[in-house]
Amino acid sequence: MWENIREAFDGIRSHKLRSALTMLGIIIGIASIITISSTIMGTNEQIKENLIGAGNNTVEIVLYQGDYPFDASYQPVPEYVPILDVSIKNELEKIPEIEISSLYYKRDAYGMIWNGANGMNQGTIYGVDDSFLSVYGYRIRSGRGFLPEDFSEYRKVTLIDRTSSEALFFGESPIGKTIEINGEPFTVIGEFTQSKAFQPTINTLDDYYTYADHSGGKVLVPMGVWSVLYKFDAPPSVVARAPRTDEMTQAGKAAADLLNGLFEVENPEVKYKSQDLLEQAKQLQELSTATNRQLIWVAGISLLVGGIGVMNIMLVSVTERTPEIGLKKALGAKKRKISLQFLTEAGVLTCIGGMLGVLAGIGLAYVVSRVSGVPIFISWAIVAATVIFSFVIGLFFGAVPAIQAARLNPIDALRRE
Amino acid sequence: MILELEHIEKDYGTASVPIPVLHDINLQLEKGEYLAIMGPSGSGKSTLMNILGYLDVPTRGVYRFDGVDNTHASDSTMANVRNQKIGFVFQSFHLLAQRKAWENVALPLMYAGVSRRERKERAIDALSRMGLSDRVDFYPTQLSGGQCQRVAIARAIVTNPLMLLADEPTGALDSKSGQQIMDIFDELHAQGMTFVMITHEQAIADRADRILYIYDGYLKGGKRE
After folding, report:
1. Which of B46, B80, B96 to mutate: most A Cβ within 10 Å?
2. How many domains, in total, are found in chain B?
3. Among candidates A70, A101, A72, A103, which has minimal Cα distance to A85?
């Protein structure tokens, strides 16, 4: 075997240009597969990171009407939907996949929050309980957090995040200042921030809509004063944190089941659903994967063309090396030996082509990443698979020339001078 | 008796329209004999040579070599016979240009499954016998025609074959180199090697013990009385 590989290298070395041209098709094919797969997986990673990266494995369970979140601003909540209070959290936290949970109300803050004439044109306002900050992993940057008295005494105090603070106070300290929320004065007691920086990568308008909610400002008030702001509102939503990312889906489903179990009707029109970011990420990933998978097919075709190129050149090589084959046969080389030699040469050729293709693909993926901002994601399994695949292509397309070489009649081969 | 041909015939062309090339060839050769076959081109002498060297299969007849009838043996058996019992010397040397002299010589040993180290030893030994011990690492392009042919002879004898087949061995050489090659043949013959040589030149053929003429596929005087 070792002899064969040595001989294959001899053959390749003695026809450098031809070997390089043979490999070119394979190199291009493999390089495009590596690049595309890197882009697909990089995009998927990006989606996952954008959606759940900053979420500390949190999953939100929200009241839904059909496929959309229930909108309480123009319709009453059906009577069968129970009023949730803080005691439900004890039930939720009995679910093994839920570490900690929180109840909250949530409204779009557009046009609702003002500091004098400065308004926030993007953001969300939350009515929260005492565990909200810890579930999301928010921490107080300046000022103080909510005290038990803030809840028990229905104080009109608020915590705002960095984005809201920038929008309302332009970098001045907001602590102690009063802002207007839906016409009611609230005292800012602190500024909070996410424990992990979260900067979704926004490349397209769709990305913008997907992440707008996450990038807008957040304003928190104690749950008790929510009714001051919004007289009639839907029951609160629930946010639960799972210990591990892959348990998020299970945690969300279990929590939604528990809440829906409190309903006293079968098949309610309005029910709780988990806004599973992991699931959502998966759907987005599937979409991007499906589009890009078609590109893989195209790359596969170029690999096929490369394989045919290998066959073509190997056939030429057999013709050209007929005297050599004839001589080897005269000296006692058996058919098997001859065909093995050509097979090995094709295999070695495509294997080298595959490796060069991997290098070119990584380089190309790097360029794509620089241009589009999608992170590079090279899977070594795919690298190994493509190299092996190109080797198999070599064997497959080398088979015909190899058999042809082995079949050569030594006298015909020797005579052709 | 090292070699015996009985009623060998060879047809080319198709089965329905055969073109006979060899007619009823009978030949007997003793071990250590030096035979020259002469004939004009197209007489069938190359075809006869190919059959003797197991490079071609006769259409009819029996070919016994070293006491075994391998006339219709498998491809693999014939490859083994060619590899171990017969050495070939061609008019145009047939050396591999990308390989050094010793690697060319070692080639048949590779097919015989000899280890790499032993191959090199034996190849260098065979080259020394041809007076080329200082050309072991040269490539064929760096050697003269006579030297190339001596490398080819080294390759032919490296497996210690029973018989050497030479097809116009001096055809591509100047007369001085040709003489040198013929001297080597004489020497090998003196050591007991069996030779079958094809040639055009009477002077070359005269070196042999025995000369046979082939015309239009008929060989005269092959059988011993």
Report:
1. B96
2. 1
3. A103
